[in-house]
């Protein structure tokens, strides 16, 4: 790595060194090579485009699926002195942003994918030099992925209009099929993929059938004095659970997209500042939240996919200290999921079924949970991790699997 790059890492970002594959990704980007970086949540994907954006001439265009996420990123970039702006329907300073872009006064410009289809925007991009296209949450481009956004399909023509501008796609959540799809959809060569290790050895996984969810969650809360997140499937469910957890004596809040934005912000800020708060939330909570000392994550029902489970549990223990992830599931979760799959477009049903079965394998296994997770992400883990419920307490080999299999095949 050239000294100038390490210099920028230290002076601009204040980090002493790259983490994991960051250095490889940055080196490829600076060399102008098209790249897909598959790195777990919290691994530091943003740096891999932010650092090149301050080193290269021109503006780095960042495509990101959520306006809230963009605004978080914007604040973080501005805090370290990067010249950045967002261009979204929620911004009222669009003229100013456009003028800054034209004047070459932006290192980073965050846009929503639907911009890509507008002729005006394409013309605008031709009016100042571009350093890089960074496509965040790139799994959104894949119909096979768990979070398909049709707007991401509009990006390819835009990228192809600037064939010499390097492309960096970023994702945390891609199984092998989705990864191949991202490469294909975004025109990145197969040898342009860099995959980081997915293991989070400090997270202990526990998965159990549901009995009384409220009691089970209250027990998790009692056993874990640090801050934690409980994922609940419905908005109303988050508020009900928060209410009933009041009796644990811990500070408890709820978070879901239906809450007044001011309340949502206040609850999030309170959680980030707290050492012992329990946040009862839908999956709307967590993206873009930087709290290293979350000590537990509990799922009060089946997550949407293994990717979702990995991402949500991955919010625990980012500081590297021990953390625990609990999941409580029931037969009715699988029944509901199957019903939901029956209602999606036929073209997507196969992928959805494969994903549900992968979740089934995770919850039903009598073997190592971590091994199943890591194999899902294309790794080759040891058979036993020594830090999940099944490794710590091997179950009597028969019953649980048969029960679960019955749910899955019904
Ligand atoms: P991701 O997008 O992969 O989930 P982020 O880009 O949001 O992760 O980064 C997660 C956290 O890691 C941020 O707080 C960021 O400042 C920090 N971080 C990134 N790179 C480094 C590094 N090289 N050294 C120390 N901390 C880092
Ligand atoms: Mg990110």
From TrEMBL:
It catalyses: Couples ATP hydrolysis with the unwinding of duplex DNA by translocating in the 3'-5' direction. Residues 213-362 form the Helicase C-terminal domain. One of its GO terms (molecular function) is DNA helicase activity. Signal peptide: none annotated. Residues 26-192 form the Helicase ATP-binding domain. Keywords: ATP-binding, DNA damage, DNA recombination, DNA repair, DNA-binding, Helicase, Hydrolase, Isomerase, Metal-binding, Nucleotide-binding, Zinc. Its EC number is 5.6.2.4. Its cofactor is Zn(2+); Mg(2+). Belongs to the helicase family. RecQ subfamily. This is DNA helicase RecQ. It comes from Sphingomonas qomolangmaensis. The chain holds residues 1 to 410 of 590 of the full protein.
């Amino acid at each position: 790595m050239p000294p100038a790059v390490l210099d920028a890492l230290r002076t601009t970002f204040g980090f002493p060194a790259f983490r994991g594959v960051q250095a490889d990704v940055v080196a490829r980007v600076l060399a102008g090579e098209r790249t897909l970086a598959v790195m777990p949540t919290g691994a530091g994907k943003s740096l891999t485009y932010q650092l090149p954006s301050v080193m290269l001439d021109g503006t780095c265009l960042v495509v990101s699926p959520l306006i809230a996420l963009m605004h978080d990123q914007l604040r973080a970039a501005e805090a370290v002195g990067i010249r950045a702006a967002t261009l979204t329907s929620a911004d009222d300073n669009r003229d100013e942003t456009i003028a800054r872009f034209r004047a070459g006064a932006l290192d980073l410009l965050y846009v929503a994918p639907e911009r890509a289809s507008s002729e005006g925007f394409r013309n605008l991009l031709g009016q100042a030099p571009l350093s890089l296209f960074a496509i965040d949450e790139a799994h959104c481009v894949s119909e096979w992925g768990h979070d398909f956004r049709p707007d991401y399909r509009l990006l390819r023509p835009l990228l192809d209009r600037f064939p010499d501008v390097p492309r960096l796609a970023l994702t945390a959540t891609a199984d092998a099929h989705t990864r191949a799809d991202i490469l294909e959809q975004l025109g990145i060569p197969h040898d342009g993929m860099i995959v980081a290790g997915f293991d989070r050895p400090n997270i202990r996984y526990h998965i159990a059938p549901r009995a009384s969810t409220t009691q089970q969650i209250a027990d998790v809360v009692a056993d874990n004095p640090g801050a934690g997140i409980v994922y609940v499937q419905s908005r109303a469910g988050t508020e009900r659970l928060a209410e009933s957890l009041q009796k644990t004596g811990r500070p408890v809040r709820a978070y879901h997209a239906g809450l007044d934005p001011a309340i949502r912000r206040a609850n999030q800020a309170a959680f980030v500042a707290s050492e012992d708060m329990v946040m009862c939330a839908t999956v709307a909570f967590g993206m873009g939240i930087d709290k290293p000392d979350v000590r537990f994550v509990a799922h009060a029902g089946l997550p949407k996919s293994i990717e979702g489970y990995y991402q949500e549990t991955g919010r625990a223990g980012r500081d590297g200290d021990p953390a625990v992830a609990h999941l409580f599931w029931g037969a009715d979760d699988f029944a509901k999921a199957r019903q939901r799959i029956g209602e999606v477009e036929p073209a997507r049903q196969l992928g959805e079924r494969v994903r549900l079965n992968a979740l089934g394998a995770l919850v039903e296994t009598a073997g190592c949970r971590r091994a199943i997770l890591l194999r899902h992400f294309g790794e080759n883990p040891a058979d036993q991790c020594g830090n999940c419920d099944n490794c710590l307490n091997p179950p009597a080999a028969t019953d649980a699997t048969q029960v679960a299999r019955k749910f899955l095949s019904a």
